[in-house]
What we know:
The complex is a heterodimer of chains A (544) and B (359). In chain A, 39% of the residues lie in helices and 18% in strands. With 544 residues, chain A is an alpha+beta fold. Chain A has 2 domains: 2-176, 2-Layer Sandwich (Beta Polymerase, domain 2); 222-329 and 339-543, Cytochrome-c3 Hydrogenase, chain B (Orthogonal Bundle), CATH 1.10.645.10. Chain A has a 4-stranded mixed sheet. In chain A, a hairpin with a 2-residue loop joins strand 16 (475-483) and strand 17. Chain A is globular, with a radius of gyration of 23 Å. Chain B has 359 residues and is mainly α. Chain B has one domain (95-358). Chain B has helices at residues 5-19, 23-60, 76-85, 97-117, 132-140, 143-153, 157-188, 193-199, 210-226, 238-241, 251-276, 291-299, 302-321, 329-358, and strands at 119-121, 124-125. In chain B, strands 1-2 form a two-stranded antiparallel ribbon. In chain B, helix 7 (157-188) packs parallel to helix 14. Chain B is globular. The chains are: A alpha+beta (544), B mainly alpha (359). Chains A and B meet through helix 7, helix 8, helix 10 and helix 17 of A and helix 7, helix 10 and helix 14 of B.
Amino acid sequence: MEDIKKLLAKVAPGKEVAEGTQYPTIELEPNEVRAVAKKLKEAGFDYLINLTGVDYTDALGTVYHISSSTNKTAVVVLKTKTADRENPVLYTVCDIWKSADLYEREVFDFYGIRFIDHPDMRRIFLRGDWKGFPFRKDYNEVNEMPTTNVNIDDLETLPSITFDKEGKIVEKTKQLFDNNEYVVNFGPQHPATHGVLHLRVSLDGEIVKKVDPNFGYIHRGIEKMCESLTYPQILPYTERLDYLSGSINRHAFCMCVEKAAGIEVPQRAQYIRCIFDELTRIASHLLGWGCMAMDMGAITAFIYGMRDREKIMDIFEENAGGRLMPAYSIIGGLTKDVVPNFQQTISEFVAYMRESIKEYHTLFTGNPIATGRMHNVGWLTKETAVALGTTGPTGRASGWSNDVRKIAPYAAYDKVKFKEVLRNTDTCKGDSFDRYIIRLDEVLESLNIIEQLNENLPDDGVNVKVPAIVKLPEGEYYQRAESARGDFGVYIKSDGNKNPYRVKFRSPCMTLISALDPLCKGEKIADLITIGASLDYVIPCADR
Amino acid sequence: MSLELIDGINKIHEFLTSNIEAAWVVSLIEYVLVGLGFLTLYALIALFLIIFERKICAYFQCRLGPNRVGPWGIFQVFADMVKILIKEIIPLKHNDKLLFYAAPFIVIMGSLLTFGGLQFAEGVHGVDFNVGVFYLLAVSSISIIGVMLAGWSSNNKYSLIGAMRSGAQVISFELSACLSMMAIVILGGSMNLSDLMAAQEDVWFIFQSPFTVVALVIYLIAAHAETNRGPFDLPEAESELTAGYHVEYSGITFGFFYVGEYCNLFINAAIGTLVFLGGWQAFHLPFAGCEGFNAVMDAIPSYVWMFGKTLLLIFLSLWVRWTFPRLRIDQLLRLEWKIMLPFSLANILLMAIWVALVK
C-alpha cells in the first residue's frame, strides 16, 4: 500500500491520494488522465480491471480500477469527471489498455460521455435509435417499442471524435467493412454463439478476415434496476448475470455488502459458500467442455458432460432448493444449513468426478481429430491477454497468473492448499487446446479444494442476524471474486441510503468476446467456432 | 418350402403368365410392381435406419432414445413421418424457385436410381448391367448436383458455403471410392455385379487378397465422407453453418434431403457389402471337410446375409459418426488428396501385380 502511494505520488505529482478508501484513489482532471495512465502502464499497471461510468448529478465521470500482471495484488483507482452534461467528452485510454475499448463504448451508451480519439463510438447495448442515456439520474425519455421492423443502418458506420489541427473537436465516421466484403451474420440465433450474440464476420472464402461482435440482445438493464432496489432485492439478479456461475456472482455481491456494512459471517457459512462456488465452477467447466466438444461435432461428449453436471445440480437442489441458480447465499450467511448427509454426498461426488475426468480424456482429449482441430489454432499471447483483460482459464492458459482466489483470497480460500492451474508459463502463449485442457485440470483442482473444505467443515452456524434494512455507509466498495470465467467484480457506490447509488458488475465475458477478433483473424470459419467455444463466454454476463 | 425371395418372385411371374396372354401386359404389370416394390423398400429402409440410428446413438450417449410410441418407440418414426408430411413448406421470396424445388427431387432420384443397380438377394435385382459397378458409381454421384443446387438456389450465405464445401468434399472422396472399387474390378475381372457375386461364392473378396482389405478401409472412409455424416458433416456442420445447404428447406422438401441421406447411408453400405463382403453369398470355408459347416451357412437365406452384412457396415458408420468430432475443411481435403488418393493409387498397382503373379 505504501509502495503504491509512493508510485502514485510519482506518476501524478501534486495529487492527493484519498484517505480511508479500499484502494489508493486519486482524482484527476480529464486532460491529465492520459498522461497518468501512460506512466502507470510504464510502471507495470497493464491490466485495466474495470471502467465504470458514474453520474455524480452535478458531473459525469468515470472510475478506472487498474491492476498489474506482475504486481498482482496492487490495485489503484483513478477517477475523473466533467461538469458538462450537454456534450460531455473525456479522453480515451483504449490505446493504453485495449480492454477499455468496449468499456468506453458502454459508458457512452449509458451516460453519453464521448471519448476523444476512441475509434468506435457506436452504442454497444442499446439500439442506434434509442433516445437519451438511460443511466443518467435525470433520464426521463420515453422510448416506445417500434411495432414494425426498423432498419438500423448504423451497424457499420463507426463515428468518432478527434481534435483537428487547431485543437477543435471534430466528428469523423469510418466504415467497418468495405463494400465488396462478404459479410455473414453469425447469430443472434446461432447454435454456436452460446446465447444471443451477434457476430458480423467478414469472410474470404472459408477464411475469417474480421469479426465484429454486437451486444445487447439480452441486455436487461440489471445495473439500472439495482439502483432502485434494496440490497437483498438485488441478490436474485446477480445470479442471472453469468447464469453458469450464479452462485459465485451472488457470493461476490454478498461479500461486498457484508464488508461494507461490517457484517461478520460465520466460518461454516464461508466454507459452504466456497464448496458451492467450486461445485458451480465444476458444473460450468463441464458444460464448457461439453459445448466445446459439441461445437466440434462430437455430440456424445456433450451428453457425457451434461450427465455429470446433473449430479452437481442434484446436490444444489438437495441443499439450497434451486438448481441452476441455487439462491443460497444471503447477506449475513446462507438461507439454511446443509442437509445432514451433505459431507458424505460431497465425498462420494469427488471420487466419482475424478474417475469421470479420466473418461473424458479417453473419449475426447486423445482423439486425433479433436487435437488436430485445437492445436495451433487461436494463439493468444500473454501480452494480448493482459491488454484485453481476458482473465480466468483463458488468461491462465496463456501463462498469465490471475487467479483472484490466490491474489486476493476471500471467504475460506486462504484456509485451503491448492495450486493455481497455469499453462505455458515459459512460452507465454496459449492455443485452443491449452484453453480446453486447462478447464479439465481446474476441475481436478476444484475437487481438491472441495475435499479439504468438506473435511474441515466448522460448526458455528450458517448466518448472523442482519438488520431488516441493510444500509451501507457512504463510499465506494469493490469486491473481486474468481468466477468460472475469470475476474468477476462488484462495484457499489453508496450514498448511505437503502438503495445503492450505482452498481457495476465487472463482466469477465465481455473482455472474452473482445478477444474473438484478434484470435480469429486469418483462421477458418470452423476455427471461429472452436475459438469461441474455447473462450467459453456467456452472453447474459456480457450484456447484463 | 424355400425361404429365398427369388422363388416368390418366380411364382408371381408364373401366376401372371398363366392368367394373361399378352406378354407385354405381363411385362408392364411386372415393371409397375418392381417400381412400387423399390419405392416401398426405399421408404421402409429410410424409416428403419432413422429409428436404428436414434436407438444406437442413444445407447452411445447413455440415454434411452425414443421409448414412448409403441414398443421400444418403433412407431415414433411413423409419427415423425406423418408430422413432416403435413408440415408447411415455407416459401421464400428471393430465390430461384425452379431449382429450389427441383433440388430435393434430384437428391432422391440419385439414390433411387442406385437402388435399381443393387442386388438384394440371390437373383433379386432391378437390372444387371455388364458395367454394373460403373453404373452404381455414376448414378450415386447425381445427388451432389441436388445438394449444390439447393445451396445455390436458396440465396443464403450459409447454404452457399455449405454447398461449396459439399462440392469440394464429395468430388474429392468420389475419387478414392472409385479407385478402391477398381482394385476389386481388377481382382474379379469384371464390372458385372453378377459375375462379381459368382466369383465370391467360395471366398469373399475381402479374404482373397491383402489388398482388398486396404481397398475396403479406403472405401469405407470415402463412402462415409460421401454421405455427409460426421466426422465429415462439414456441408451441414450444425454448429458452424446451422444446417448448411438445406437451411432454407422446410416440411417434406427437407424430409427428402433427410430420407436421401439415410438411403445413401444404406446404399454405400450395400455397395461395400456387394463388392467386398460377398454380397448375398453365405460365408463358406474353402477347405475339405467343411461341407457340413457350409451347408449350415447356405441354409440361411441370401437376403439375411445381404442385409445383415449391410447393417454391420451401417453400424460401423454410426459408431464413427457418434464418436468423432468434425474435421476442418483443409484437414478434410488433405486427408483425401495427400493420404487416401496416393494410397488407393498404389493399392491398384499392387493389386494388379498381385493378380498377375498369384492368380
